[in-house]
Write a structure and sequence with these properties.
20 strands; alpha/beta; 662 residues; six-stranded mixed β-barrel
Length: 662
Amino acid sequence: MQLSGIIREFPAGEQTIRILHGIDLTIYQGEMVAIIGQSGSGKSTLMNILGCLDKATAGEYLIFGKSVKQLDADELAKLRREHFGFIFQRYHLLGDIDAQDNVAVPAIYAGMDNKLRAQRAEQLLTDLGLGDKVHNRPSQLSGGQQQRVSVARALMNGGDVILADEPTGALDSKSGKDVLQILNNLNKQGHTVIMVTHDPSIAEQAERVIELKDGRIIADYRNEHFNHSDQTQDPADEEAIATDSPSKALRHKQKSRLGSLIDRLSEAFRMSILAMRAHKMRTLLTMLGIIIGIASVVSVVGIGQGSQQQILSNISSLGTNTITVIDGYPYGDPRRQYNDDNLTPDDAKAVADQPYVVSVSPQLDTSASVRYRNIQESASISGVGSDYLEVTGEKLAQGQSFDEQSISLRVQDIIIDDNAKSTFFSDIANPIGEVLLIGNVPGRVIGVLQPNDNAFGSSSDSPTIYMPYTTMMSRIVGGETIDRFVVLIDNQISTSAAESAISELIEGRHGADDFRTRNSDSIRQTIESTTNTMTLLISSIAIISLVVGGIGVMNIMLVSVTERTNEIGVRMAVGARQSDIMQQFLIEAVLVCILGGGLGILLAFLIGEGINSLGSDSFSVIYSPTSIIAAFICSTLIGVIFGFLPARNAAKLNPVEALSRD
């Protein structure tokens, strides 16, 4: 380790303060060096530069023959991870994990095999007299015991160079002597030990003493009285501590690059869980925005799906896959005023013979005065075919429908709707067989339709009476034409293709396009498009709450970075890469969002069940698997996007500044 002309300056407002003034120093392998000086002399700054925790403003620092200036952040982390071991005055242990896990942290970043890592950490603690404390957390250990854990952590990856900053400063005299004895024994085993202290009595126990004053070396001498054999050994320290020669510990059973990455991710995941558990209320409040946003999106999509299904069901009750052929030229065509009686029952029969057609019902409409006993009302009269109920999907509540014989014989049978029944037969439970006078034509009731409650049924409250279209043509309106006919298309056939084929057929029969068609599927598509648009619009509004929740996550993660700055500094000191720090906080943000997303989906299910239990039988919230999957993806992306800035800030922290914060 060779330093030439090392200068270190720090900004102070518009000026800079120089802490180190042209330090020239060479430290040889295997030395035990004490850097001594009063507070403010620059000894800690020098140690930080030696340990690659800080960089010099000017000058050259060579370590193992390589200039530190040429190393990037990850290469510096590798140096700290594989060659340096730090012992701090304030221990800097991670409070959420036990002693063994604290010791093992450097080996995680170095990719050491799991089993070997656990064995080595336990052996180091045992050799340092903490065999019965391996599973104790730092808060359960005394100051001396915590410093021993810090020593074990420094040795975990081999610790070629041990850097100890005031290692006895926070200890009582007995614990201080024990730590110094440990450092002396490590030096005897080949480790380079560099101590920073302001206590001359401690410096006397080092082989070499470097004295600083006002950022300059004023003395560099060897301690004539230093002798390893002079150190009084505790019987527990007579055996060598489980340490290896330079970086040999890392060559035992090192994992592959992928295995090492998985190990580091597992560590980041575990620490994220511990951090979330340590701040349960804050974590829950952070999740709240995500929970509300995800629940809103999933619920809105579910309600939209349920509404769409109800509307489409109502359309289906009017007849699915139907095409209505209507007499008369299209609206706006000037020929419309001259001729609008072109559609005949033969046209309907020609269409019915097509292979893609299930059934056809001709239809014509008028109104007439209807009388029953002393009751007389105006009613709508519809002439229909025998397949009318099949085509429209309407159901009978009582009686029967027409058959082909009714059509061919032009019988005077009628079917009435629920309005007609309540109008003319309010006091008769079963009106089948009763006779109504339609104008001057009597009609015998053979059937009663079920009430049509859907939104697409007739909105009129006037009575409606159905009779065979042949009967109506000959006895009510006269003439040989019909107003329209409704075609039920095979479900396997495209209604658009069928509509084109029917148009070509009728136009070929008439020699003109004196008709128009209405495709029920176009209504379905319009309604689907409209409901999807409305669902998307409302979902977009709900997504705003997700963005707000994401901003909340970012703010809380920034607070978390501030609170855990010291932990970040410790991890960097023991060799964590910038990517390791970023992963830890990014994983925590993603976990918060995924957990919030899961709770949001659960809340959406509860909302849906509440709506379903309170709503009518005709409507229910239908959950979309796509929206649920999208919710998980969305919550994950929020964690990545809004967690990136805090994670990057954490990764960019200066190790020295991070370690100096509590």
